[in-house]
Write a structure and sequence with these properties.
- The protein is an alpha/beta fold.
- The chain contains six helices and four strands, in the order H-H-E-E-H-E-H-E-H-H.
- It has a four-stranded mixed β-sheet with strand order 1-4-2-3.
C-alpha cells in the first residue's frame, strides 16, 4: 500500500480490462482471481500448471523507498528462455508506445515464485511504481488503466501472431517435400502410360 493506494486493486482492474480485450481477440483467458480475494503463490502456480496455458502473465505494480523510481519492467525466469524473452520484449515495446513513463527493460530472477514454479512462456510485468507520483496518477486513472491493458494485449497478440506464423512456416516446409514426391509420382505414371 502507498499513499492509501492498494496495489491489489490496480492489478485486478488492469487484469480484468486485459481479459476483456483478449477475449475480443478470440483468446481464451483464465484468471487466478476475478474478485478481491487472497490467492497464495503456490495456489497460483498450481492453477497455471493444471491449466497448461499457451502463456502466463502476472501483473503487478512496483514500489520503492525512492520516490523518483518510475517506469515499467518485465521479469523472466533466470536462464533466459527464448519464448519468455520474446514475450517480455513484445510487451515492453507495446507499453513504451502507450505509457508515458520509463522503460526499465527485461529483468530476470530465479527467486520469483510464480516464474520459478511454472512452465511455458511466462513473465511478470511490473507496470509502474505506486511510490512515484507520476506513475501512481497513471495507475489509478481508469482511462490509463485501459491503456496499460491495451498495450499488454498488443504484446500478447503480437506474440501469438508470430507463433502462429512460425507454425505455418513449419507446416509449409513439411508439405513442400510431399508435393515434390507427388509430382515425381505423376511423372512416373505418365511415363508408364506412354510405354503401355
Amino acid at each position: 500500500q502507498s499513499e492509501g493506494i492498494n496495489e491489489k486493486d490496480i492489478n485486478l482492474a488492469i487484469s480484468k480490462n486485459l481479459g476483456e480485450l483478449l477475449r475480443k481477440l478470440g483468446i481464451e483467458v483464465s484468471f487466478t482471481r476475478e474478485i478481491d480475494q487472497y490467492v497464495s503463490l503456490s495456489d497460483r502456480a498450481n492453477l497455471v500448471n493444471r491449466k497448461k496455458p499457451d502463456l502466463f502473465i502476472s501483473i503487478h505494480a512496483n514500489h520503492s523507498q525512492n520516490p523518483a523510481a518510475k517506469g515499467f519492467e518485465v521479469w523472466c525466469p533466470k536462464g533466459g528462455e527464448a519464448e519468455c524473452l520474446r514475450l517480455a520484449g513484445l510487451i515492453l515495446k507495446a507499453l513504451a508506445a502507450k505509457i508515458p513513463s520509463s522503460n526499465r527493460g527485461i529483468k530476470s530472477d530465479k527467486s520469483l515464485y510464480v516464474l520459478k514454479n511454472t512452465r511455458g512462456p511466462r513473465v511478470l510485468a511490473e507496470i509502474g511504481f505506486v511510490s512515484n507520483p507520476g506513475d501512481r496518477k497513471n495507475l489509478t486513472d481508469p482511462k490509463m488503466q485501459q491503456r496499460y491493458a491495451t498495450a499488454i494485449a498488443k504484446g500478447i497478440k503480437d506474440f501469438r501472431d508470430r507463433k502462429l506464423s512460425k507454425k505455418k512456416m513449419v507446416a509449409l516446409r513439411e508439405i513442400t517435400p510431399l508435393r515434390k514426391k507427388q509430382k515425381k509420382l505423376r511423372q512416373r505414371i505418365r511415363c508408364f502410360e506412354r510405354h503401355a
